[in-house]
Design brief:
InterPro entries: DNA_glycosylase, HhH-GPD_domain, HhH_base_excis_C, HhH_motif, Nth. The protein contains 11 helices and no strands. With 216 residues, it is mainly alpha-helical. The chain has 2 domains: 6-27 and 142-203, Orthogonal Bundle (Endonuclease Iii, domain 2), CATH 1.10.1670; 36-135, Endonuclease III, domain 1 (Orthogonal Bundle), CATH 1.10.340.30. Helix 2 (36-45) runs antiparallel to helix 8 and helix 5 packs across helix 6 (89-107).
């Protein structure tokens, strides 16, 4: 657990300011979608897969299965074939069908809003649930993926590798209005500059305030 010292809070303020200046403050998920259900399916597919790859698959997928009921009654082999180019397609096909079936049986075919309801769906953890809450319902939420976990630790905002602990650490120090966009901004930073394992500190716009910077 990170203590909310003056130094940490000053760093939080400056990091949020620079992220907004660099990437803008009006940011949403990179996953293409037209409604809550499409985003839910796309986010399940995105586990251990790039958004770019998911966005290549979902147009044909949603044309083939346009409704919750279509996914709920899908033949698993046919669905696996449709998402074959995405990793872990066996498990994802099973979860997607189970998710759609539970949406029909428990939620009237609608995507629920609360973290408890969302995480009751097959294949939906806190990360996926927070993507839905933040991007669809605009409920303040923090999505912790591998980039957010790594970079938040490098910035001194958490000292944990547990995504749930990281989420709670960030909720304590980040301004609530930054919660939704922090993930998108950090993903872009992680893909372009603050990479694992080798961060490009010499190219980073936060090198002077980052406690993990290697060029000081």
């Amino acid at each position: 657990m990170i203590r909310k010292t003056k130094a940490v809070m000053n760093r939080v303020t400056e990091v949020c300011k620079r992220l907004d200046e660099q990437y803008g403050s009006d940011m949403r998920t990179y996953l293409d979608h037209r409604n809550a259900f499409e985003l839910l399916i796309a986010t399940i597919l995105s586990a251990q897969c790039t958004d770019k790859r998911v966005n290549m698959v979902t147009p044909d997928l949603f044309a083939k299965y346009p409704t919750v009921h279509d996914f709920a009654t899908a033949d698993i082999k046919e669905l696996e074939k449709a998402i074959h180019s995405i990793g872990f397609y066996h498990a994802k096909a099973k979860n997607i069908i189970g998710c759609a079936q539970k949406l029909e049986s428990d939620f009237g075919g609608e995507v629920p809003r609360t973290i408890e309801e969302l995480t009751s769906l097959p294949g939906v953890g806190r990360k996926t649930a927070n993507v839905i809450r933040g991007n669809i319902y605009e409920d303040p939420s923090i999505v912790v993926d591998t980039h957010v976990k790594r970079i938040s630790k490098r910035l001194g905002f958490t000292n944990s590798d547990d995504p749930v602990v990281v989420e709670h650490d960030l909720m304590k120090i980040l301004p609530k209005e930054n919660w939704i966009r922090y993930n998108i901004q950090i993903i872009y930073l992680g893909r372009t500059i603050c990479k694992a394992p080798n961060a490009k500190c010499s190219e980073c716009f936060m090198s002077d305030i980052c406690p993990s910077c290697k060029i000081k």
